[in-house]
Design a protein that fits this description.
binds zinc ion, single chain, 11 helices, SIR2/SIRT2 'Small Domain', 9 strands, Rossmann fold, 3-stranded antiparallel sheet, 6-stranded parallel sheet
């Protein structure tokens, strides 16, 4: 049965009346494509937890180990496909002249679903950054063997690292500022698949709401955001977002 009901009517009404839309997405949207969170007991790789590998200290100690883990993760991301929720978000982008997608996800699935006006808040698993000259570049299409040596920067020979915000690191320059600035002028903010435990994205949503945006939360679980939202669509984004997109005038 397709997702339906008064909450969907209300969300469609909000979007139909908004001039600009900010969409914030988190791990729940990727989980529907089979991407694990890599946190907690389910995310173990060679008996390491994510918290032991996704840190600047772990990289300094053993860059080869950290790269092996990222090659393994990257292959999982490349073998996954964007789901109906990703595609609906790309469809929403086409309906709004003023639009921004800010995602916590690093897997690249939004881009593969044709989202273009987007900020990757935590970086991308498909990008490297040179620890010498700072250049950010695409990684080769094929991740290669898990235990290949750590890649080096072609221009300067420096060690490359994943262009990801690790535990204990600040956000990449300008990213949060851009998201907050957009949220403060947005007519509507739609949050999908984020847990309220990850604070900066939740803060962006609540700050935007305080500045006048209508807040829609899409999450099967009740969170701090769903409690604060003007409308809560209590369903997976792969079900509710296509239904919401279908309600909008073309
Ligand atoms: Zn370099």
């Amino acid at each position: 049965m397709a997702f339906d009901g008064p909450d969907l009517d209300r969300a469609a009404e909000i979007l139909a009346g908004a001039e600009s839309l900010l969409v914030l997405t988190g791990a729940g949207v990727s989980a529907e494509s089979g991407i694990p969170t890599f946190r907690g007991a389910g995310g173990l790789w060679r008996n390491f937890r994510a918290e032991e590998l996704a840190t600047p200290e772990a990289f300094a100690r053993d860059p080869g180990l950290v790269w092996s883990w990222y090659r393994w993760r990257r292959r999982i991301c490349l073998e996954a496909s964007p789901n109906a929720g990703h595609l609906a978000i790309a469809g929403l982008e086409d309906r709004f002249p003023s639009f921004l997608l800010a995602t916590q996800n690093v897997d690249g699935l939004h881009r593969r679903a044709s989202s273009r006006r987007m900020l990757e808040l935590h970086g991308s698993i498909h990008h490297s950054r040179c620890t010498g000259c700072g250049t950010v570049a695409d990684l080769p299409a094929d991740p290669g063997p898990e235990d290949a040596p750590p890649p080096r920067c072609a221009p300067c020979g420096g060690l490359l690292r994943p262009h990801i915000v690790w535990f204990g690191e600040g956000y990449h320059e300008g990213v949060l500022e851009t998201a907050f600035a957009f949220a403060r002028t947005a007519g509507a903010i739609l949050v999908a698949g984020t847990s309220a435990m990850v604070w900066p994205p939740a803060a962006i949503a609540l700050d935007g709401q305080a500045h006048g945006a209508a807040l829609i939360d899409v999450n099967p679980e009740e969170t701090e955001i769903s409690r604060a939202a003007d409308v809560w669509l209590a369903a997976p984004s792969g079900e509710s977002l296509p239904a919401l997109l279908a309600r909008l005038p073309r």
